[in-house]
Structure formats: C-alpha cells, structure tokens
Write a structure and sequence with these properties.
- There is one protein chain.
- This protein folds into three domains: about 5-120, Butyryl-Coa Dehydrogenase, subunit A, domain 1 (Orthogonal Bundle); about 125-230, Beta Barrel (Butyryl-CoA Dehydrogenase, subunit A, domain 2); about 235-375, Up-down Bundle (Butyryl-CoA Dehydrogenase, subunit A, domain 3).
- The protein has about 375 residues and is α+β, with helices and mostly antiparallel strands.
- The protein is globular and about 80 Å long.
- Helix 7 runs antiparallel to helix 8 and helix 9 (about 315-340) packs antiparallel against helix 10.
- The protein has helices at about 5-25, 25-35, 40-50, 65-80, 80-100, 105-115, 230-270, 280-310, 315-340, 350-355, 365-375, and strands spanning about 120-125, 140-145, 150-155, 165-170, 185-190, 195-200, 210-220, 225, 270, 275.
- About 50% of the residues lie in helices and about 15% in strands.
- A four-stranded mixed beta sheet has the order 1-4-5-8. It has a four-stranded antiparallel beta sheet with strand order 2-3-7-6, with no helix packed on it.
Amino acid sequence: MDFSFSNDQEELRAHLQTLLRTACPPDYAERCDNEAMPPREAYQALAKNGWFGLIVPPEYGGAGGSAMDLAILLEECGYAFEELAMWVFRTITYGGYAVMRDGSPEQKALLLPRVAKGDISVCFAITEPHSGSDAASLKTQATRCDEGYEINGQKVFTSGMDISDYCLLVARTSTHEKKHQGITNFLIDTKLPGIEVKKIKTLGQRAIGTTQVFYNQVKVPESAVLGTVGQGWRSVDAYIWYERLCLSAARTGAATAAFEYALNYAKTRRQFGQPIGSFQAISHQLADMKAALDISRTLVYRFAWLMDQGKATRHDAAVVKLHTGETYKMVADKGLQILGGYGYCMEYPLQRFYRDSRLATIGAGTSEIQRNIIAKGLGL
C-alpha cells in the first residue's frame, strides 16, 4: 500500500495554500460566519484558477485528477474555511462525480464543462422530515406527466439550495416492497416554478447554512433524470461514499486549523509565570489532539487510495467518516477548553470551530449509523 504524495501533488498543495491565504484569510472566514455570507469571492477564486475541474475528464475541460488529488483540495479548503470546502465538495461531487458516473452523453457535454469552469453550483437533496438516518424511506414523489415528471414533496437540510443552480434530487418514482427500489435521481434547475426554499437557522455552518425545500407540482423534463429510472439508490450509495471522502478531508483540515490555533495559544499564553502549554494538564490534551489528527489524516488518504484502486468498501467509508467527525468535535472542544474564558468569547475563532464541528457527528450519516455499518461489516 502506497498513498504517499507525488511531486505534482506536493505542488498542487503548495499552490492551493498560496491561493487560499489570499482568497480566504481568517478574517474573511470570520466575516462570512458573522454575517451569514457565503464565501463567494473565495469560491470564484478557486473557479478562476481551475480547481473545480480537478476530477473532471480532460475531454470536458478538466484535469482528470484522482481521489487523492481531491482529498488534498478539500483538506486545504477545510483548513482555510470549512464552509468553503462544503460548497466546493457539493459541486464537485454532485455536479461532477455524479454526472461523470451516471450522466448521459448529453448531460456530460452540458454540465461537466460548466462544473470544470466553476460556472455553476450544485447541491444535494435526500433528507426529509420523516426520513433522516432511514434515508431510503423518502416520500417525495416524481410522477410521469406529459412534460416529463411532476415532483411533489418536501426536503429538509438541503444545504446550499438557495445559492445553487442545480440540485441533485432523490425522489420516488414507484412503490415496491423493498424501500430501496423505485428511487430515481434528478438534476433539476433550482429556479423552477413550484420550488419554495426556506432558510433554517442553525448553531453553526452559518455562512452557507441549510434549507427546507417544498416541491409543489414542479415540472421537470425527461432529460433531468440522472441514471436509470427506479434504480437510483445504488448511485446514491456511490455518491455518499464520495461525499464521505470529501467531508472527512475537509473536516481534517478544519480540525488541524483549530489545533494549530490552540497550540499557538498554549505556547504564548502565560499563567503562573510560564506558558500554559508547559503544564501537563494542557500538554497532554494537545498530545491527544495531535495523535487523533494524525490518525484522521492517515485514514483520509488511505480511503482515497482505496477509492483510486477500486478497493474501497462501505466499511472503509464508515470508519473514515466516524473517526474524522469525532476527532474534529474533540479537537474543537479541547481547543476551546485550552483557551478558557477567551474560547467562550465570540471574537476568538475556537467558538466557530466548536459550533461547526457539532455537525460532523450528525450530518451525512450520524456517528451512530457509522458504528452500525462498521458492526455489520464485522458480522455482528
């Protein structure tokens, strides 16, 4: 097993770091969070420099990069600002990877060049008020009509719907004995008549946030279907594996930023005549944070390597998602504790990491669900 970085990948990381230091400095991330403002300037800077074409095939204007390359991109974006990474990964996963995997020749020709240029933004809609962890119990209905399909239903936690051009919508086109059957994926224009979007106020992830979406007699053409009608769940499963790679890389980057801030504070904050980092109570916490982060990074690139080799499993995806999410939450919590009263103040960034990290063990598959998947893989 070899998942070391090539010279090209080291250069890729260095170029990203230079770009993001200018396009997404800490004060910019803070302002986006405080003002609930999407990081458009940073998103556009990445687009201008070709980063959205990283995994898109060259024939569609991309670089044809690997899962390892993508993990590098998302880790660095997450280090700069986690919500920038969230926005980037959704477009690359649901506009790029999904279309590459299941799109028709016409869909690929229409959408992939636009994704590669960063001209469009794409989000994902699967969760409903009564189907969260049990995602396949979704009820949103897509019924055939003269124009193609009519969609009726409700989605919740569709993050980025209000700033996206397209939404990859998972809907039910028929009812079967097994709930995973009869599911179809649609790439729909977010501005179609009949779509109502309501913003949800959240504890963290405030720059982009999430939404509740109502679909009332929304007409979509036959060409909006992505993949095979009635057999969409297998594709959803593949998209979610890719999502878990992206989330894990982004959150490892964000956790690293939180750790470095706490470490620097521990080296410079003095109490009782010496830096607080010299006290074992603080130094051991930082040691635990560092060890967990190193494991997270290793798991991320191991999983990326397995994906590139075609060897990744559902078990692997659950392990990396579980560990990186729990590590981010732990690092943010310990980091805030190290800052003490200042960590509790809104002018210091640890409070943002603390708020944002809570989603890591809830969204895109709770830690409990990941443990269920892992246990099942062990034959339990």
